[in-house]
Design a protein that fits this description.
This protein is an alpha/beta fold. Helices cover 42% and strands 13% of the residues. The chain has helices at residues 11-20, 25-31, 34-37, 48-54, 92-111, 121-129, 150-158, 193-205, 216-225, 249-257, 268-271, 283-297, 323-332, 337-355, 360-372; strands at 4-9, 56-64, 82-84, 116-117, 134-140, 160-164, 179-181, 208-209, 231-235, 261-264, 302-304. β9, α10 and β10 (261-264) form a beta-alpha-beta unit.
């Protein structure tokens, strides 16, 4: 089994949402209680048992604030076109309250032994070696942060090590791309002045800047400002699936030049050439995007960013327990063990170490831990 470090999931939002309706989020993650208490999709994609069954060894777990209710995509027309308007901006204080509640769930899961909250790549490697889920706190859309970035300091102290300045809506830091097909990601302005300060402060602290939901203009703004590898944690290939959320060849080239990465998004609407939200999407469609990215950027720049608990995914995968079906598909497509180790976890560990400005001592500890578990 190939252990997988996944660049994006929304399990914390699912747990918080269920907690708002009276569920116990710790029991749901540690014991899989959602299977008994909720029907169908509400059981989500990740808990401890399913993560272990699928080799999901860790990942970036998002603090995400919804715009209220489940996002409803516009129905495609006869040709498959759709254009869902951007969600309205959110009020900061309410967003901060929700973000703190979501972060609190992450801390409670750690206290219950459900995972280890990791602050550097040595923590990740040690957790994986011990068979414990290696969770890294990520913020998807920074509506909870103030323009002065005081809250960023506090979230950093609590373990935040990655953020995306925007989700697919606008905020004080920048502009997001809509969910639309077919459409270029060049849909509007990029970073604001506050967004530029945010990127610089992330560079100073060692917080990864994620480009998954930002406009193309915002992408180039970050590329100009940041000293980090460019990362789109959960995006796919625009040349295959021309959704606004996917990346153009020019963006892929810039990511490769920076030695960054793209995490393959399992969301079916971002995988299928027709853009439709049908879970009847084979693993071979996922591999087509990986093949394209490997050919365009090289094996060192391709990883996994599932979007578990955040989007409909191929039925063939189902949930975290089905991850090794993608690995098996990649093996059948000719990817060897060394390449699979890079795609499944090694590329994420390299990029995170770089973005976090880690010392040689920490990187040595990471390599040593990986070798002990046979994953270096």
């Amino acid at each position: 089994m190939q252990p997988v470090f996944d660049g994006h999931n929304d399990v914390l939002f699912r747990l918080w949402n269920h907690a708002e309706n009276g569920a116990d989020p710790v029991a749901e993650f540690v014991g899989g209680a959602a299977k008994a208490g909720f029907e169908g999709e509400e059981a989500g994609h990740i808990d401890m048992a399913r993560a272990k069954a699928g080799g999901l060894a860790g990942g970036l777990c998002a603090i995400y604030i919804s715009s209220g209710g489940r996002l409803q995509f516009d129905e495609p027309d006869a040709s498959g076109r759709y254009h869902t308007p951007l969600s309205a901006p959110l009020e900061r204080q309410a967003s901060l309250d929700k973000a703190l509640g979501i972060a609190a769930i992450a801390l409670r899961i750690e206290r219950a032994g459900g995972w280890a909250l990791c602050r550097d790549s040595a923590d990740i490697a040690a957790a994986m070696a011990a068979g414990k889920f290696a969770a890294v706190l990520h913020m998807e859309g920074c509506e909870a942060l103030d323009a002065e970035l005081n809250a960023l300091e506090v979230f950093y102290a609590a373990g935040l090590r990655s953020l995306g300045p925007v989700w697919s809506r606008n905020n004080i830091f920048g502009h997001g791309v809509p969910f639309a097909f077919p459409l270029s990601p060049d849909t509007g302005p990029g970073l604001t002045g506050a967004g530029r300060r945010l990127v610089r402060e992330c560079n100073r602290l060692g917080v990864l800047v994620d480009l998954a939901h930002i406009t193309e203009k915002g992408f180039w703004d970050v590329a100009e400002l940041s000293d980090q590898p460019l990362v789109a944690s959960h995006s796919n290939v625009h040349a295959i699936t021309p959704a606004a959320r996917n990346l153009t060849d020019r963006q892929l080239d810039a990511i490769a030049e920076s030695r960054g990465l793209v995490g393959l998004n399992f969301a079916v609407g971002l995988l299928r050439p027709d853009g439709r939200e049908s879970t009847d999407t084979p693993v071979t469609t996922m591999i087509r995007h990986i093949d394209y990215m490997v050919e365009r950027m090289g094996i060192d720049c391709v990883a996994i960013g599932s979007d578990f608990d955040g989007a409909p995914i191929p039925a063939e995968i189902g949930d975290a327990a089905g991850l090794q079906k993608l690995v098996a598909g990649l093996q059948n497509a000719g990817y060897g063990d060394e390449d699979l180790a890079k795609i499944c976890r090694g590329n994420w560990l390299r990029v995170l170490a770089s973005a976090w400005h880690e010392t040689a001592e920490i990187q040595d500890k990471t390599t040593s831990s990986q070798r002990k578990m046979g994953t270096a």
